Amino acid sequence: MAEGDAGSDQRQNEEIEAMAAIYGEEWCVIDDCAKIFCIRISDDIDDPKWTLCLQVMLPNEYPGTAPPIYQLNAPWLKGQERADLSNSLEEIYIQNIGESILYLWVEKIRDVLIQKSQMTEPDPDVKKKTEEEYVECEDDLVLACQPENQVKTLDFDVSENRTEIEELPPIDHGIPITDRRSTFQAHLAPVVCPKQVKMVLAKLYENKKIASATHNIYAYRIYCEDKQTFLQDCEDDGETAAGGRLLHLMEILNVRNVMVVVSRWYGGILLGPDRFKHINNCARNILVEKNYTSSPEESSKTLGKNKKVRKDKKRSEH
Questions:
Q1: pLDDT, tens digit, for every residue of 256-308?
Q2: What CATH number does the domain containing 77 carry?
Q3: Stretch 240-249: mean pLDDT, rounded?
Q4: Region (Disordered) spans which residues (predicted)?
Q5: Closest by CA position to 178, among listed 271, 39, 72, 110
């Protein structure tokens, strides 16, 4: 496998893991080897009026130089409405060439469904047909166009008081997840400078239980308003590639000025890839709980502005 292909494959795997963590049962694997996936999107998870199934196939060149191949499946989606939605997805791709865009696509579709639900009520037959189409997605896929990159920038306000960055920020702790005697718990703190990252880590390690964890994986993203870029970094703490996967989740969710630490207490049973799922789920849950996730519009306009700083990672099997 060429070096470029290996890099694309790793980025795809990280995005797939993040999407599975974010959407849970809404995310469905059609063909893992062929990288074909389907996600069921609705205006309201508890009481859906409008539902659409997005099927995507990830070519080897994605996300570097090619878009996902996609199919929109919904019995009510026809004509101009289908064309408008397809154009919106392709515009998102144009604005973010080279970046992971599946999260942006899903949330754009969800926004369209929410707007539609506020305007019209579906026919009862439409709901039934949508359920059937989710089980049997069509085979023909649409290739998004690839015009020149037109990345937009957006100014953001940093609400934190820069005169107080020397203070230890508050630290929140998430609900633990336990699987086969291994326990995972996320910790979150708002940060606006690398010094605060060190302060948070030092404070966490004062807790004997956290200090005794097998791994304390962390990642942070700090938005630099003057340069309109992100200062970000991650640490595996011996759990190979876990920090990079955690940072990728935070990039997709477009969180800013925050760090997440996930502690894992190893229980003696190897979990395989499930351990990454639990790490991402812990992180996502606390980010959502503390309202750090942003709108897809903001994500779309800032994904291309990241400044990445990564450390060498220690390696371990568990």
A1: 999 999 999 988 888 888 888 899 989 999 999 888 876 544 444 444 444 44
A2: 3.10.110.10
A3: 88
A4: 292-318
A5: 271
The pLDDT tens digits of the residues spanning 198-229 come to: 999 999 999 888 988 889 999 999 988 877 88
Number of domains in the chain: 2
DSSP-based three-state secondary structure for 301 = helix
Domain that holds residue 216: 172-290
- State pTM to two decimals: 0.54
Cα-based torsion angle of the residue sequence 315, 274, 69, 243 in order, rounded to the nearest 10 degrees = -30
pLDDT at 139: 38
Q: What is the CATH number of the domain that holds 241?
A: 3.30.230.30
Inform me whether the pLDDT recorded for 65 exceeds 90.
no
Amino acid at 173: H
d(CA 104, CA 96): 10
Q: How far is CA 214 from CA 120, 129, 218, 224, 245, in A?
A: 53, 49, 13, 33, 18
* pLDDT (mean) for 87-99: 88
Q: How many CB atoms lie within 10 A of CB 270?
A: 12
Contact present, 249 and 18 (Cβ < 8 Å)? yes
pLDDT for residue 161:
39
Of 83, 99, 118, the last residue of a domain is: 118
Question: What order of strands is seen across the sheet that includes strand 142-143?
Answer: 27-31, 36-42, 51-57, 69-73, 142-143
Q: Is residue 211 part of a domain?
A: yes
Please, which residues have CB within 8 angstroms of residue 9's CB and are 6 or more apart in sequence? 1, 60
